[in-house]
Amino acid sequence: MTGIAASPWSDKAPIIPHPAEFIVGLLAFAVLYWAVQKWVVPQFEKVYAERTAAIEGGIARAEQAQAEADAAREQYTASLAEARGEAARIRAEAQSERKAIVDGARAEAEEAAARVQERSAAQLAAEVASARGQLSREVGRLSVELASRIVGENLADTDATRRTVDRFLADLEERAPAGAELPEGQH
């Protein structure tokens, strides 16, 4: 400490180093600079290059993944549109088949109803004819019985009586007003 304190350098400018210290410091700086340049900077450059490559590779992988995702989304959208089209086609076919089945069932039901109506009309006509015949016979019997009471003789069971009664009933049917007939469809 005394050597330094006695130096003329310390008296003139206390912040200016001694020339020997300056030279040693300069040499140490040069050695340090050379060592850093020789071993540290290449390591930094290597790490920097690796990080750059990793980042650029990550970006490239991200872009590739994004492109794959876009392609998958487009494929999904196309598949979805195709599936929707297929569903619409199937729905239209089902509706067409449903309509055909309903139309067929309706036609079959109408045909069965027509057959039932025809059978009913035929049965009703047969019943009406039977009732008319029965009524004619009853009217004939009552007429003969009434005539027998008026005349005082038995007129039943003779051919002449039957012919007279039949002719009388035929005349009544011919003179019957049109309203006496059953309405259409109730024969």
Task: Summarize this structure as a short list of keywords or feature phrases.
187 residues; 85% helix; mainly alpha; rod-shaped
Describe the structure.
The chain has about 190 residues and is mostly helical. The protein has a domain at about 20-135. The chain has four helices and no strands. α3 (about 20-150) crosses α4 (about 160-175).
Provide a brief overview of the structure.
85% of the residues lie in helices and 0% in strands. By secondary structure, the protein is an all-alpha fold.
Which residues form runs of ≥5 with pLDDT under 50?
none
Strand content: under 5%
Please, how many helices?
Answer: 4
Which radius of gyration do the C-alpha atoms yield?
64 Å
Give the H and E element order.
HHHH
Briefly note the structural class of the backbone.
mainly alpha
Largest sheet: none
* Strand runs, count: 0
Mean pLDDT: 86
Instruction: Calculate the terminal CA-CA distance, rounded to whole Å.
Output: 152 Å
The dominant shape is rod-shaped
Report the helical percentage: over 70%
Question: Topology, please?
Answer:
Elements: H1 2-5, H2 8-12, H3 19-151, H4 159-175
